[in-house]
């Protein structure tokens, strides 16, 4: 395997590791725990689940893989802060959507040819991309991998201490 | 710039972005706030600062850049849990060490030739590395970038809400 292929393999693997680690935290939390705030006055676990799902859903158009699957989550979990909207989907539904969105993303990510990672993401024009070639799909993968780690660190605070 | 160079540039840039973002959170916190727990019964901010410094310090030998600069931090902030050791360094000293370690790392990281990122890190033998070439220095950079995001998500909980 050449270095370029290896660098993409490592980046994709790192993304998958973070998804798995987030799922591992989710598996340790009951629905009651997910309804708790991660710290006093802060987001609830359920909001972080919905937020992560909505942000990953937005990766589908951002990476030019296709349309968002659950655009109805965006006003609830990206535009609105936690507890400002009374009605949010039940946890079992959010968990199913979280899995659905990631399964779709993973299929696209695993099938993307190496060179395609260096093409533009959808939030930059072709004209500007010529000047800023680092604003590519690979960069989106990196920043969203970090985003997921950030919220996993918070979600893990809901796990019961022994 | 070819794709391989670009992939390393993006990875290094992502690392630097996470350091900057962590520093931006630190800048918003008073010493009193850093002495608080991020959530009831969880690590204090000061512990996360010491822990991140100790882990980054360990990256120097792990990436084969040189010896750790502050090995005295490892028993306090890696091997020991928070509040199990009474005497820890004062915050102003930890902040200086955090900067010192990252400055050293950054200088090495920015000077490492692209091909060198694909050589082994220090926790794998040359023999095993032949079988698992993904266990290279680039992989360490990715995993530590995620590690820092994880703890930044926690540290940010200490920022006062308006």
Helix and strand sequence of chain A = HHHHHHH
The tally of domains of chain A stands at 1
What's the CATH H-level homologous superfamily of chain A? Answer: dinb family like domain
- The quaternary structure here is homodimer
Here the CATH topology of chain A equals Four Helix Bundle (Hemerythrin (Met), subunit A)
Q: Give the rounded overall mean pLDDT of chain A.
A: 96
Largest interface: A-B, 39 and 39 residues
The low-pLDDT segments of chain A are none
CATH architecture of chain A: Up-down Bundle
Q: Report the biggest beta sheet of chain A as strand number plus sense, adding barrel if it closes.
A: none
Supply the CATH class of chain A: Mainly Alpha
Strand-residue proportion of chain A: under 5%
- Estimated structural class of chain A: mainly alpha
Number of helices of chain A: 7
Instruction: Compute the separation of the termini of chain A in Å.
Output: 45 Å
Number of strands of chain A: 0
Q: Helix fraction of chain A?
A: 55-70%
C-alpha geometry of chain A: globular
* Rg measurement of chain A, Å: 17 Å
Report on the structure:
2 copies of one chain form a homodimer. With 162 residues, the first copy, chain A, is mainly α. Chain A has a single domain (3-158), classed as Four Helix Bundle (Hemerythrin (Met), subunit A). Chain A has helices at 3-27, 31-34, 45-62, 73-79, 91-111, 126-131, 137-155. In chain A, helix 1 (3-27) runs parallel beside helix 7 (137-155), helix 3 (45-62) packs across helix 4 (73-79) and helix 3 (45-62) packs antiparallel against helix 7. Chain A is globular. The relative contact order of chain A is 0.18. The model of chain A has no long low-confidence stretch (mean pLDDT 96). Chain A binds chain B through residues 1, 3-4, 6-11, 13-14, 18, 38-42, 114-115, 117-118, 133-134, 136, 138-139, 142-143, 145-147, 149-154, 157, 161, and chain B through 1, 3-4, 6-11, 13-14, 18, 38-42, 114-115, 117-118, 133-134, 136, 138-139, 142-143, 145-147, 149-154, 157, 161.
């Amino acid at each position: 395997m050449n270095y370029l292929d290896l660098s993409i393999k490592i980046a994709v693997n790192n993304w998958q590791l973070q998804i798995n680690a987030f799922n591992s935290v989710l598996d340790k939390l009951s629905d009651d725990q997910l309804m708790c705030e991660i710290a006093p006055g802060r987001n609830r676990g359920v909001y972080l689940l919905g937020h992560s799902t909505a942000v990953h859903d937005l990766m589908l158009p951002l990476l030019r893989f296709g349309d968002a699957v659950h655009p109805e989550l965006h006003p609830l979990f990206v535009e609105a802060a936690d507890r400002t909207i009374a009605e949010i989907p039940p946890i079992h539904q959010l968990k199913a959507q979280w899995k659905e969105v990631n399964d779709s993303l993973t299929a696209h990510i695993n099938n993307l040819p190496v060179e395609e990672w260096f093409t533009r993401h959808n939030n930059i024009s072709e004209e500007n991309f010529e000047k800023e070639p680092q604003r590519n799909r690979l960069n989106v993968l990196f920043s969203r991998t970090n985003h997921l780690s950030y919220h996993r660190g918070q979600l893990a605070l809901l796990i019961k201490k022994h």
